[in-house]
Automatic annotation (TrEMBL):
Swiss-Prot/TrEMBL keywords: Membrane, Transmembrane, Transmembrane helix
Domain of life the protein comes from: Eukaryota
Membrane-crossing residue ranges in chain numbering: 22-40, 52-70, 90-115, 136-160, 180-200, 212-231
Name of the protein described by the UniProt record: Uncharacterized protein
Signal peptide (from-to): none
Segments for region (Disordered): 327-380
Sequence ranges of Basic and acidic residues compositional bias: 327-340
The species this protein was found in: Tulasnella calospora MUT 4182
Length: 380
């Protein structure tokens, strides 16, 4: 017996592409292609247009069209005893293993925008500026985004072992273990984020609960994918890309049976499609009350304080005082203005204390009285 016959290889998630995959692959490829249409409609409208917000979902949808097109092609040309392209199989498995993580990065961006909104001053709702809270919300979001690298890196390393796993048992074993590590860490972070959001949902003042509910929905549906993967990742088979030509053709452990394929499309492919359509269809700026880039500012000191929006659009009388908004639109930050003139005592306090989050006290132009505010406007 050859080494390829004796090595136990981790079974392909979704099984080997067979003729039974042709129809569902075409359906999913078309469905993902159509999901781009709501994004285009949203992008055309200047009040709903987004650039970097939900940056992961659009490329994910386009990439899924490619994946299912490749799967449809391989399944259409399927013949017993054939040798399938190992590169195409590896590409599909990497895509299935790591693609759904893009929803997590989008969820982090959504939550960041919602949390930062709770720290902004708005006389209409009675909120005051909270620079220190804003600073820590942003840092927590940065860390949350980086944590997903654990799942992504372990998954990438895992499937780098896949090409040689058919001939080397040690590489097959590494692939087996690292696939589990990637899926389990992804599920852990999804659940942790979901629990954290449910915990703060009623505890943070001015928090938009409807927006948080949308993020919780995204996280909850995302959890289905790694749960399914953890259920099936323990299966192994005796072949990788060389299809069997004699019975038994596809044992249940190969995940290539009709039942196995049905569960793959229901619990892996369908949740991803639902999330892609959901995120592409939503007016993200209105739901999360943010701009086309989300909360992209890393520092108030460097970029200035963002103005609170209403339904994703700037509205007069909402947010920080008008003078700050005008200066920000002109590209003049408090720090730059401080360098231009030494007579802005009020603005110095504002840029040093309010902007960097190092001091919990706030000194805003609107709180300095009408005379001081008028002096500031004349100076500008």
């Amino acid at each position: 017996m050859s080494s390829s016959q004796t090595v136990r290889v981790p079974s392909l998630v979704g099984g080997v592409p067979t003729k039974a995959d042709f129809a569902p692959s075409i359906i999913f490829a078309v469905a993902y292609g159509l999901s781009v249409i709501p994004f285009i409609r949203r992008f055309i409208n200047k009040d709903s247009r987004t650039w970097t917000l939900a940056l992961g979902t659009l490329p994910f949808s386009i990439e899924r069209v490619v994946v299912y097109a490749i799967r449809a092609s391989q399944s259409h040309d399927h013949n017993l005893g054939d040798t399938l392209s190992k590169g195409k199989l590896v590409y599909q498995q990497v895509s299935f293993a790591l693609g759904f993580v893009s929803f997590a990065s989008d969820a982090v961006a959504f939550v960041r925008a919602v949390l930062v909104n709770t720290t902004l001053e708005d006389p209409n709702r009675g909120s005051v500026d909270k620079p220190r809270q804003r600073y820590w919300y942003r840092r927590a979001s940065d860390i949350a985004g980086l944590l997903w690298m654990v799942s992504t890196v372990s998954g990438g390393v895992a499937y780098s072992k896949m090409p040689g796993s058919g001939d080397h048992q040690d590489q097959a074993d590494q692939l087996y273990r690292l696939r589990y590590a990637s899926a389990s860490t992804a599920l852990f972070f999804f659940v942790a984020y979901l629990v954290a959001l449910l915990a703060i949902r009623r505890r943070i003042q001015w928090l938009d609960r409807r927006a948080i509910d949308w993020v919780c929905f995204i996280l909850a549906v995302s959890c289905i994918v790694p749960i399914y993967r953890l259920v099936v990742l323990h299966y192994t088979t005796s072949f990788l890309n060389i299809l069997p030509s004699t019975p038994p053709l596809y044992p249940s452990s190969s995940l290539t049976t009709t039942t196995s394929k049905a569960t793959f499309y229901i619990f892996h492919s369908l949740p991803e499609l639902i999330l892609a359509w959901t995120i592409q269809t939503l007016n993200l700026r209105k739901v999360f009350n943010t701009g086309p880039f989300g909360d992209w500012r890393g520092s108030d000191r460097k970029y200035g304080i963002v103005q609170l929006r209403e339904k994703g659009v700037y509205v007069d009388g909402v947010g920080v005082p008008k003078v700050v908004e005008e200066k920000e639109n002109q590209g003049v930050t408090p720090e730059r203005e401080q360098k231009k003139s030494k007579g802005f005592g009020i603005f110095k306090k504002f840029s040093r204390k309010d902007s960097d989050g190092s001091d919990g006290t706030t000194t805003r132009p609107s709180e300095a009285g009408a005379d001081s505010n008028a002096d500031l406007v004349r100076a500008v």
